[in-house]
């Protein structure tokens, strides 16, 4: 799927534009191998092989010095520049086949940083749409057809796609600008964050135009799809080729090339600044939904949002972004006034007053205690003060601890689940129903939330006891023989509801309802059961 075969296309265009010293010095077999096999090497969890990988003793010594033990390690920011050091060494030793191996690894890693399936919505489309066998878009095209258009490989299957990819690459081409070895490695370490940001601005359009093109959108949709995919692929290719040119220049000198602690520390400072300053509006999925708090804001529901930093990372969790966008759109379409709150602000300063924002919704698929400059302790303390001053919180729970002291009463009612990530055996979900504790509304699971592939499963193992006073039943799973397990609760203080906690899988689309038509594929929203669960919970919080 996305950026599987696409790695071939990134490497192929780089092979066509390698510096002459490498293109002429490497064997034809190595150049071909770099496209079909070496460009996928970092996806292996195997150790490096000095002979099979053409690394040689010096390369193996470099990997050992910096703690790079597996090929997969090259995805990490700290390990990516190690491949560049190995490239410089290989060039100095005139081992050009080895140099091509390292270029392929660098191309894979950089391309992964910007791959479309690393965008929250494109990720869902990549791994969930293929199994929705009977679901179509508006004009009857199956959604599974569009899932096959999210990979860069799709661009190269048509003459128009090849033309757009080549022109985009030429327009984005970068050259050696004389940067130092240390500056080159610092830039390489930042690709994870820069690539995720670049993808956050285009991944939404990849989904949009893949859906439109597969559903009969014609050449305009096709051109837009190939353009967005080409920009993502070219982003990686032009940067790695620039880094290769720098390596060729540096290799011709006798300067020592190494990575030291000061460089990693400088990188951490750079990342911290990135976390502090990255604007929410650069997230295309959020941009049309943003509603800032102003002095005139009154009685608006707050929806917490967090930018995409690096794939599968975040303070509130990667999947939380998709749920937050879906919640905001549901509120808008149901004519509920809402505002969007930046998670960084909520961790750094007091929350808005309960007069301005009486309820705050937090989707937390995998909350961390700390993510770089975002501190979970202060976030929880500010939440507690907000609740104490009259505010209310709807916590959409995934993995990780519930924030204390704000949700301590709820946290005290958590009981152990027999499963690691779910409240029940995930293979039995389709035998259970999700519904209100009153029993008036229930929905059967049409498929298990244990989605077979991808990194975005809506994990939540929470099961609760209740005392009927400080913590009361709200939502439950009802299984065979009418066995009920409480999975959603409401927290009270002095008889007043102060917080609700519901599992994230209750709002994950297409688990409680199997739609016939998927409208507005690029505009994430809750399905009908999810909307009902969200709005009913907000109603209960209001009383």
What does this structure look like?
This protein is 42% helix and 12% strand. With 543 residues, it is α/β, with parallel strands linked by helices. It folds into two domains: 6-277, no CATH class; 280-412 and 487-542, Rossmann fold (3-Layer(aba) Sandwich). Strands 2-1-3-6-13-12-11-8-9 form a nine-stranded mixed sheet, with helices on both faces. Strands 4-5 form a two-stranded antiparallel ribbon. Helix 4 runs antiparallel to helix 5 (80-92), helix 5 (80-92) packs across helix 13 (218-251) and helix 7 packs parallel to helix 12 (203-214). The radius of gyration is 25 Å and the shape is globular.
Q: How is this structure best summarized?
A:
Helices cover about 40% and strands about 10% of the residues. The protein has about 550 residues and is of the alpha/beta class.
